[in-house]
Design brief:
10 helices; binds nicotinamide-adenine-dinucleotide
């Protein structure tokens, strides 16, 4: 029996890197893919030092052919695909009209197209018992001012997760998403929006990595309740619970207040 395997995009830094190291410490074989080759090289060294196996390669998730080739190569070398983590993402903060349209489009290319490419590339290799984890965000609860396009890409992730949980659930494949609020990584460095100011940044990449592991090995309760979305941190749990039970006008008002400088 070979060790379980996880294929991680955006693995060179931040949440992806913390997750790669967490799974390596748990004895999994880790596939790390990113556009940052220097970051991947140091990740491979760190994984090897923990006694686990890493396969790393450059991959731009917005390139569907390259994504399919990378997953194919990974499965050929490891023999199995237990988890796909669609984690690579980029974020533009600021007023929508002040951000160049090419940057908005690139955000869609990575955060939306990259996820579609990953799901499509992985599906032929997923087996009953496999899990797909997509990185959504607390910004998929309600559209976020000053993160409009980013937030909309995470609504896409939310939607495709729910739909494929239904479609692929029948094949024994779980599809889930994680919803962190702001996490202390390169992505949030220098970002100052109404909500980063009002809510602060209280999560680290390890908090999210631990939640990925928990989502992949769910408790009996999570399995019984068929949990699809996993909020990360107390603030996100409170916000998502609140939005589920409060009327739409109140959710809008709360979000407006949180976003106002
Ligand atoms: N940091 C946060 O506050 C936060 C909150 C909620 C959700 N998320 C989500 O978590 C995920 C990881 O974010 P992070 O905070 O670790 O960011 P990060 O910037 O620290 O790391 C992102 C990694 O993705 C890589 N990447 C970027 N474009 C790529 C591409 N086209 N192909 C392959 N790799 C690419 C980067 O090189 C980097 O290594 C993202 O999907 C993000 O939207 C982050």
């Amino acid at each position: 029996m070979t060790s379980r395997t996880i294929f991680i995009t955006g693995a060179a830094a931040g949440i992806g890197r913390a997750t790669a190291l967490t799974f390596a410490r748990a004895g999994w074989t880790v596939g790390g893919y990113d556009v940052d080759e220097a970051g991947l090289a140091s990740l491979a060294t760190e994984v090897a030092a923990s006694g686990a196996t890493a396969i790393t390669a450059r991959l731009d998730v917005s390139d569907s052919a390259a994504f399919a080739a990378a997953v194919g190569d990974f499965v050929e070398r490891t023999g199995r695909l237990d988890v796909l983590l669609n984690n690579a993402g980029i974020l533009n903060a600021g007023r929508f009209e002040d951000i160049d349209v090419a940057r908005h489009q690139r955000e869609v290319d990575v955060n939306v197209r990259g996820v579609v490419n990953g799901l499509h590339a992985a599906h032929p290799h997923l087996r009953p018992g496999s899990t797909v984890v997509n990185l959504a965000s607390a910004s998929a609860i309600y559209g976020q001012a000053e993160l409009a396009n980013y937030s909309a890409t995470k609504f896409f992730v939310r939607g495709i997760t729910e739909a494929l949980d239904l479609e692929w659930g029948a094949q024994g494949i779980r599809v889930v998403s994680l919803w962190p609020l702001f996490v202390e990584t390169a992505m949030t460095q220098g970002v100052s929006t109404g909500t980063t100011e009002s809510l602060g940044i209280h999560l680290g990449p390890q908090d999210v990595a631990d939640q990925v592991l928990a989502a992949v090995t769910p408790s009996r309760l999570a399995r019984t309740l068929h949990q699809v979305h996993f909020p990360v941190g107390r603030q996100t749990r409170a916000l998502s619970l609140g939005s589920r039970f409060s009327p739409a006008w109140l959710t809008r008002l709360v979000n407006k207040r949180l976003a106002s400088h």
